[in-house]
Design a protein that fits this description.
Blueprint lengths: L2 H19 L3 E4 L6 H9 L4 E4 L3 H15 L3 E5 L3 H4 L2 H10 L3 E7 L25 E4 L7 H19 L5 E7 L35 H11 L5 E5 L7 H12 L3 E3 L15 E2 L2 H5 L2 H6 L4 E5 L6 H8 L5 E6 L13 E4 L2 H10 L7 H19 L9 H11 L4 E5 L3 H9 L7 E5 L9 H8 L6 E6 H6 L4 H7 L3 E7 L11 H4 L4 H6 L6 H7 L3 E3 L4 H11 L5 E7 L2 H24 L2
Parallel strand pairs: 1-2, 1-3, 3-4, 4-6, 5-6, 7-8, 7-10, 8-9, 10-11, 11-12, 13-14, 13-15, 15-16, 16-18, 17-18
Helix pairs in contact: 1-2, 1-6, 3-5, 3-16, 8-12, 13-23, 14-15
Pathway: Quinol/quinone metabolism; 1,4-dihydroxy-2-naphthoate biosynthesis; 1,4-dihydroxy-2-naphthoate from chorismate: step 2/7; Quinol/quinone metabolism; menaquinone biosynthesis
Cofactor: thiamine diphosphate; Mg(2+); Mn(2+)
Subunit structure: Homodimer.
């Protein structure tokens, strides 16, 4: 058999098995050594291939798509530093529990560690940031090796999406010549065999009757508790948590990425302003729950983190769907490894008991007063960073996605994105919390036709300008609300802003002084710079009626923004302290 036929059958069986396992999308960055994988994926009729030139952008593009679709997406690149450029996205995927299949081409063994060009050490190069690494064999078309390559494909797809999802890395050594021959008969293997190579059965993760009774018995000892939901992507969990909260008369502190602030489920007990409430040390001192049940990751809110650290007597229960110990506060916690929705159903059916209604009413009253003050506009036409979120939330269409950048963007969404009955998804890259790759991630989320809105700051946007090329190539629809305060606005809230006037601007403020309008023109996007809320709302709504990328730039001043936020928080604190005193 020729080398070309051997190479072709080996790679074709691998790609076919990935499709049978459930793969529908692959993101390819062009290169020579990856030719067998790239061309075979492109030839396969049932897998959509996306070409993204920049591997760093490609990694985040695949991550955003996988997060949106809640299923693994494959990445293909050539050997050398191309694979290294995936690293930031792989780190984010690992900590964010996003399923990726990272397929790197490599030099064959005889060309490693001998000074051959474009040959770096790729074995286990992502180390602990992948769930599984495997060095694939050199191509062979014997029946045992074709079974081997299908087995590895099926295992890789399953491992990426199973339990806590995450990235999987397969490294493919290829010898030249690299061109596959798609004229070989039965290219994709046995056409009659439709099932996957491995038959898999996954059972539901739930507590036993004894464990459930024990948990219910513990919870009956308390009068005041909190349900907390941090970042997570299951849009159906809101119904279950809302039902549990109303059965128990408990407030639910809902992170903006929890999928609880938006949707058709009841919001009766959802407390969306808890970050603003807990900024006050006086208020934190007066709110003392006896227990907290947390779903999802740790919330974005730093005041919440301070709150739990200041109260070591609180009994904590952390619910994880499969495994993991996400408890960054360093406090003692009981971990419950069970399907969150099933646990909620079981606890409702258990008829535990109802908790102190006055405790729930305090939280509701605090929430309502904080909400009124946060949304109040004293200068109705003054463009402020926080109220960008308010107008954005009003204009975003139903059945769409809001992708939120890090630093100030996610914190403003935490403060100003209020409960809504709109059916929408709110997601972000909160695994490693970096500012890299956010535009590419949002474009990946938009790849299958859903109009996505990205809220992002100027530094984050600048960091990933290369990502806009894929939008131009595929005419993806993305509305970018670009909040430009000419630098790192979040640092103005940190101690560095007060302690070091000499170095602050250079090291932390980092002004860009860039006219983004000229950059957007390179990628054939539409650009607007509204001067009033009416203009902002008009161009925002118009963007949802057109395809392609629309950039809406809101220009603000970092110093004014800092003062505006602090004034809002002071007003909230003053009002809530007076309420708690009974004034």
């Amino acid at each position: 058999m020729s080398h070309s036929e051997t190479l072709t059958r080996y790679v074709a069986n691998f790609v076919d098995e990935l499709y049978k396992s459930g793969l529908t999308d692959v993101v390819i960055s062009p290169g020579s050594r990856s030719t067998p994988l790239a061309m075979t994926f492109a030839e396969y009729p049932s897998i959509t291939h996306w070409v993204n030139m920049d591997e760093r952008s490609a990694g985040f593009f695949a991550l955003g798509m996988a997060k949106q679709e809640n299923k693994p997406v494959a990445l293909v690149c050539t050997s050398g530093t191309a694979a290294a450029n995936y690293y930031p996205a792989i780190v984010e995927a690992y900590y964010g529990r996003v399923p990726l299949l990272v397929l790197t081409a490599d030099r064959p063994h005889e060309l490693r560690d001998v000074g051959a060009p474009q040959a770096i050490e790729q074995l286990n190069m992502y180390r602990d940031y992948v769930k599984w690494f495997h060095e694939m064999s050199l191509p062979d078309m014997s029946p045992s090796l074709l079974n081997y390559v299908r087995s590895k494909a099926a295992r890789a797809y399953y491992t990426a999406g199973n339990e806590n999802p995450g990235p999987v890395h397969l490294n493919f050594p290829f010898r030249e010549p690299l061109l596959p021959d798609f004229s070989v008969p039965q290219l994709w293997g046995d056409d009659k065999k439709q099932e996957t190579f491995h038959h898999l059965m996954d059972g539901e993760r739930k507590l036993t009757t004894e464990q459930l009774d024990s948990l219910a018995s513990q919870l009956r000892e308390f009068d005041r508790g909190l349900i907390v939901c941090g970042p997570q992507v299951d849009c159906n969990l809101g119904d279950r948590i809302a039902a549990l909260a109303e059965e128990w008369n408990l407030p639910v502190l809902a992170d903006p990425l929890s999928q609880l602030r938006a949707g058709h489920h009841s919001k009766a007990n959802i407390i969306e302003c808890y970050d603003a409430i807990l900024k006050s040390k006086q208020i934190r001192d007066q709110l003392s729950p006896e227990f907290i049940i947390r779903f999802g990751a740790m919330p974005v809110s730093k005041p919440y983190l301070l709150f739990v650290k200041e109260k070591p007597s609180i009994v904590h229960y952390v619910v994880e769907p499969n495994s993991g110990f996400r408890e960054p506060a360093g406090i003692e916690a009981q971990f419950i490894f069970a399907d969150p929705a099933q646990l909620c159903r079981d606890l409702v059916q258990n008829r535990n008991h109802s908790y102190d209604k006055s405790w729930l009413q305090i939280w509701k009253s605090l929430n309502e007063q904080a909400k009124q003050l946060l949304l109040e506009e004293k200068e109705s036409n003054k463009l402020t960073e926080g109220h960008v979120v308010k107008y954005l939330a009003d204009a975003v269409p139903i059945q769409s996605t809001l992708y939120v950048g890090n630093s100030m963007a996610i914190r403003d969404v935490d403060t100003f994105f209020m409960n809504t009955n709109k059916q929408m998804k709110v997601i972000g890259n909160r695994g490693a919390n970096g500012i890299d790759g956010l535009t590419s991630s949002a474009l990946g989320a938009a790849a299958h036709g859903e109009h996505v809105t990205l809220l992002i700051g100027d530094l984050s946007f600048y960091h990933d300008l290369n990502g806009l090329l894929v939008a131009k190539h595929y005419n993806l629809s993305l509305t970018v609300v670009l909040v430009n305060n000419n630098g790192g606005g979040i640092f103005s809230f940190l101690p560095q802003a007060n302690e070091d006037d000499k170095h602050f601007e250079v090291l932390f403020g980092t002004p860009l002084d860039i006219d983004f309008k000229h950059i957007i023109g390179m990628y054939k996007g539409d650009y607007y710079k509204p001067q009033s809320w009416e203009q902002f709302t008009d161009v925002l709504r118009e963007s949802y009626n057109q395809s392609g990328v629309t950039i809406i730039e809101i220009e603000t001043d970092r110093n004014e923004n800092t003062s505006w936020h602090k004034q809002k928080w002071q007003e909230v604190e003053k009002c809530l302290v007076e309420y708690m005193r009974g004034d």
